[in-house]
Amino acid sequence: MLKQALLGVLCAAVVLSIGILIGHFGISKSSSSEPSWMKDVVKDVDENLIKQFLSEVKTSELEQNLRELTKIPHMATSPGDEQTVQFMLKRWKDPSSGLDDAWRQEYAVYLSFPDPEKPNKVTVVDPSDAELYTVREKEKPYYDDQRHPDVVQPYAAYAPAGHPRGKLVYAHQGKAADYELLNKTVDLRGTIAITRYGGAGRAAKAINGAPYGVVGVLVYTDPLDINDGVMSDTSETYPHSWYLPPSGVERGSYSIPFGDMLTPYLAAKDDTYRIPRENVTEIPPIPVQPIGFEDAYKLICELGGDAAPSDWQGGFNCTYNNGGPGFNTDSVFNNSDVKLDIYNHETVKNSSNVMGIIRGSVEPDRYVIYGNHRDSWVHGAIDPSSGTSVMLEITRVLGSMVKQGKWRPRRSIIFGSWGAEEFGLIGSAEYTEDYFTKLSERTVSYINVDIATFANATLRASGVPSVQNVIFQASQQVSAPGHDSLSVYDNWIKYSNRTSPTHGLIPRMGYLTGAGSDYAAFVHYLGIASMDISYTYDRTKTNARIYPAYHTAYDTFDYASKYIDPGFVSHQAVARTAGNILIRLADSLLLPLNCTDYAESLEDYLKEAVTLYEAQLQTKGISMEPLKWAVANFRREAKNLEELIRSSHLANDTPLKARRINDQLMLLDRAFLNPYAFPDQYGFRHVIWASSSAGKPTFPGLADAFARVQSSGEPRDWEKVHYHLSVLSQAIDGAASMLAEVI
Amino acid sequence: MLKQALLGVLCAAVVLSIGILIGHFGISKSSSSEPSWMKDVVKDVDENLIKQFLSEVKTSELEQNLRELTKIPHMATSPGDEQTVQFMLKRWKDPSSGLDDAWRQEYAVYLSFPDPEKPNKVTVVDPSDAELYTVREKEKPYYDDQRHPDVVQPYAAYAPAGHPRGKLVYAHQGKAADYELLNKTVDLRGTIAITRYGGAGRAAKAINGAPYGVVGVLVYTDPLDINDGVMSDTSETYPHSWYLPPSGVERGSYSIPFGDMLTPYLAAKDDTYRIPRENVTEIPPIPVQPIGFEDAYKLICELGGDAAPSDWQGGFNCTYNNGGPGFNTDSVFNNSDVKLDIYNHETVKNSSNVMGIIRGSVEPDRYVIYGNHRDSWVHGAIDPSSGTSVMLEITRVLGSMVKQGKWRPRRSIIFGSWGAEEFGLIGSAEYTEDYFTKLSERTVSYINVDIATFANATLRASGVPSVQNVIFQASQQVSAPGHDSLSVYDNWIKYSNRTSPTHGLIPRMGYLTGAGSDYAAFVHYLGIASMDISYTYDRTKTNARIYPAYHTAYDTFDYASKYIDPGFVSHQAVARTAGNILIRLADSLLLPLNCTDYAESLEDYLKEAVTLYEAQLQTKGISMEPLKWAVANFRREAKNLEELIRSSHLANDTPLKARRINDQLMLLDRAFLNPYAFPDQYGFRHVIWASSSAGKPTFPGLADAFARVQSSGEPRDWEKVHYHLSVLSQAIDGAASMLAEVI
């Protein structure tokens, strides 16, 4: 009995032990001891969600968006602009496919318009003041779009009003070198210069001429530059093709800086201090008017004087002469002047950004910003509505996922529909000035899709080197339009590629070295890892500077859907690629920003700088060693950080480790900012990507300083070269220290 | 049998179930399902550790540190300085009480020294060039300390070499207003001005005089300003008391900007670009020499001309006359000139910071920085060695805890022993320029303890308003020296207090509005929440401008231990308070930075600005409403954030939530930076605390702009007032948006 009892107790003990073991190890205890937030904080990007996103981007929606956006002209602050504001707000507040929140944000900004009551006028007047010829006031209508009363007359925004009159000369592209050359044989004092688009910025064509005494400037688009030589609207140009009709005129902002010009480095609110208007520089000092090549033909082919240099000749079937100054003696215009009557006026008006957000679940204080401007010059089907259509399709698909409770990004997403970009990237620049510190400290990346489809051949992407990787990754997952079995990436590499020491043959990304669209304030002023994405041309098929209807009354839904992207498949490819990038930036546990790719670009720039400058710098006793050490230092720290990332298991580690590494990657570009490096270039602080006039593929401040001393020969200008070397070396060292072991 | 068997199975099942229940609920599974890092990431500051720290801070160690540090003079870059570098490194690398790591970091900086071979000379010379009187070359020795060969001759660093000679005038404190007044009755052209310390910065005394034709400047310390009138060294002054002996001379830097003057906004490395020396401004344009009041007495009491205004009179038993210019006709110096022979020279020399770190365990990428300069003018017992002694005692106690494995802070701690502070805060400024972005992005707070003990009466603390709370908290836990039952806080409130709308009666903190010590680059250039801590005077007992031996050969261990802090109890109180603050900043789960206290200070400043300026601004059509809205906005967002903090259980929430709120608090001051607001004030970017000359307790840029237009009457100067209102409103709005819900 005792034995039996003992056996019973023993059995019970064994069974109890088994029970304890089962209870302890066999049953998951996650609900009680693992905090509820654990799963969320270590979650990585979900590839199935990306697949779902890609499958839900619809050409039909993209087409419908574009149709809505282009119903009427929507120049900044016009009634049509207000209509697009309302349209964006309605879409982003939609209860089933909208965002978490959306609102309008206004800035009071300095704009320039022609006078609808007194249209700008360009005439040829003989010595008795008789008008022999009058340039067309508006573009020729082919459809109702061109007849819309809100089509703004072609004008040069920010060119002053005035009534200059003088003998005509042909000044090619209006570059400084063009006027210098022309001035050697022609007395430019009191003349009107006709110039063509390209070569120099819009404002520069007037700013460069004024010192020689030029009193007014005409600007036109030469058929050679835009139409592959095609000129006739009876069969060749739009509406028969994508080419520019003879009366088409490129409008544009004739100002150099970006952002509101009256409120530098301050947000343009109602009560903000504004500098006196006479202190606004970097706009034309003399009246300017853009005209079509139909009119330019009449003027240029009547010019007297010597024949212009061969590389100044264009697409017209006549010799481009310099101008006597003035017209040929056997011309009907002999002895006549050209007269400009310009009635532009500047005014401060309220322009709206429309902002929309999706709140982040785990790191709401980290922002991925996606933006495009909303304002156009006329209907703006391609510029910017193709991009706005893409943005709206991305927000529709993502917004629906959020509203259905299927998804919430790890980080917050901010969408910006910027106002008044056409006047100088104003809406986006004011936004960055308004929230400078907040955006600096929290923004992971900025994605810009302005013109989504210049054409339908291939992807084009520009950005800081750290975003190359995520663009590649995303574009590999999207089918190229019209090629079901070819990815956007594989198609891209066929059109534009390079050999990277690290990656081998890869598509060639561009750099964001200028201020071509709203990425400017983000990359140059805030130092945020930015990118710009679009679909573009097959360069073997056209030499057009840009799509021919750019900034004209022909950039319409009809034009876009017939000649740029029939079927909206390129819009779709861009929406899928950009949306994929956006999701990856918002959802990845480890930010998909690659610092060794940055090292590669710095090494390229260094190599070029050494080749171009070192020998001469040595003769001046200026050493490039600190720059070499800095780049080597950056490479070493980038490699170390990448190894740390490779050897880490972030999902098993404290969430503060992922945050720490992500902060290192996110803030890398901030270390390249220097607010004192370019005192003459408003808003440019990024010492690697700032705008440069030297045209060399290397560090901009160094290249410009070197070019300056080469031309001036002033010993003091060598000091600037040395200064920029120090700025660069220390910025790169500072960036390397951001990548180094944090302490 | 069946029944028995069934019973057995039933029993077994029950036992098994019990086992399972025990196994599942009874035994903690933390090791398997709760990640190992969980405990660390939610750990808060440990009050027991603070108690232990407080108990281990020893007066004997503080005394011994000071004795070691003051053995020989250690002016920047001197052999004595190198000796202190070695001493710091030895202590910080000590295997049982040192830090995780320590190293030296050198910058090549622009310094100014007298010539030991040709000492500066000040003489009275008669018309036949006979020397009637020669000013003492070195201070009178009482002990070996003063006889040490490395005691540098008194000089005005950065004042140029030269040999000016002229009639003497008395220009009071050398303020602009002083020269302006004096010039009304005395022709200042070609004169030597004698001025006294106080009222204006050192360099200003020469910069203000030169435009009137003054060719040389003498500077002395009036006994009224430093010695409560006491003058005789036979019984009254040191070595009989803390008062300045008659031959004592305050040395100092006669430069205005901080940081190395040849490398503005760049770290002064060997190859860094240096501006031409002739471009260095804001230093005296004419020779200057500081002298003792023993010599000043001889000169001033012989001056001719009218009696100087009553508020220009000083502690000498004679009437201070303006000077004829020159001496009294019945003086032995009648018709004589004063001649300066100044042989100062500038040179670029390597100066060392000594850096030491304790790595953070949870957030190594967050830094608490604690610093003090190491260089002195002579032995520098009080300035700066009292602070260095305190820093070494803090590192000894904390280092021992780290080496014993008892403690590792949540965040990283960086200790900086700065070089060349006396020449213009150079070591700390170069450090912030060298690691600008890294320090901006990661630094939680900067604690400066330079002169730890001006005197032994009460704590003195200055800082941005958000650090008030942690200073109060820490000082409540430390006993006041000599008062076992009274805290440092309760003692402090007796000496200096104010009534806060929120807190009632509290000690009065100062603001960091100038560049008095190494906090300058941290708060003004980087926008880091900074503080400066010391023990100081009972103002009912002395009117001395500063402790009398300041910058003289009498600031020795003997002086400090006898007359400033016998028993080293004030050193101990400062070490305990500052160390407590440091531990709280490094270890608290939620950063102890308080944003509603910031709101209170902004409201004070606003109230003052409205009182002083609003009526006149209204007459100019400039509205103060945007500033009022901004301050109200800041208050609202600060209150909301504080409520969010109160309602949060950070220890139970994702560690990313604490990090998010901490980032909001840490980065608050960054939003107040504007690199364009003060183009004429090097390194000043913080629009709330920048240096101001208007002397009003309100926003500095606004106050200075208003003062300027009041004096100039220029309509254009009203624009600057409006500009600064916009800068301020937008900075405060930007700061409010940092506190607002993150998205």
TrEMBL record, chains A, B:
Residues 622-739 form the Transferrin receptor-like dimerisation domain. Its main location: membrane. Residues 353-561 form the Peptidase M28 domain. Its cofactor is Zn(2+). It is found in: Apical cell membrane. Belongs to the peptidase M28 family. M28B subfamily. Aminopeptidase with broad substrate specificity. Has lower activity with substrates that have Asp or Glu in the P2' position, or Pro in the P3' position. Lacks activity with substrates that have both Pro in the P3' position and Asp or Glu in the P2' position. Lacks carboxypeptidase activity. Lacks dipeptidyl-peptidase IV type activity. This is Aminopeptidase NAALADL1. It comes from Oryzias latipes.
